[in-house]
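Reply to dn_fold:

You asked what the input looked like. This is it:
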Amino acid sequence: VNRALPPHIIRRRRIAGLVIVGLLIWALWALVSFVIGLFSPGGAKATNVAACAPGVVSVTALSGDGTNHVSSYAQGERPLIWFTIVNNGKTACSFNTGAAVQFFRIRNSEQVVWDSKQCDRKDLGNQETVLKPGKPIKSPVGMWMRVYSSNSGCGEGQAPAMAGTYSLVAEVNGVVSSNYEEFNLEDLPVESQG
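and this is what came back:
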């Protein structure tokens, strides 16, 4: 003969069951958050991570085809520009890598030809990124239209830049790139180069 369980035992079993279900839901949420963090650009969301100490972060300016360095551009070819950023410390740290604090400057000798500060920047924001030690992060790739920048803008409609040797500098959240990325703009059109 099956006897009915006393109410206090049923209550305990229900509470235990709810606690187990709650723990399983929490564990699943933690696992999903961890996996998402592994595949996000910065490696994880910047929560409970100390800000990067001064001098720990370095930036490298790059120009090319979006993947590889290119040192010379034929007439009509537009350089693609980007940077990599790396944490040279021993522990992960949080750093603002948002578009609002990203700047590029292109010089011809000592003259600043193009400065991204003169572009339309009103919709750009900040983004705290966790930088893992020794793991460079590549920025999105932009394009220089081979023009001068001015108070009226930095793209189409600006005065064209002449042939010559140029250098690119990147700056992210006050950290200036350690290199001057040099490249040449040529007079020859693309089809004339061999």
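Residues 36 and 43 are 9 Å apart (CA to CA).
Hope that clears it up.
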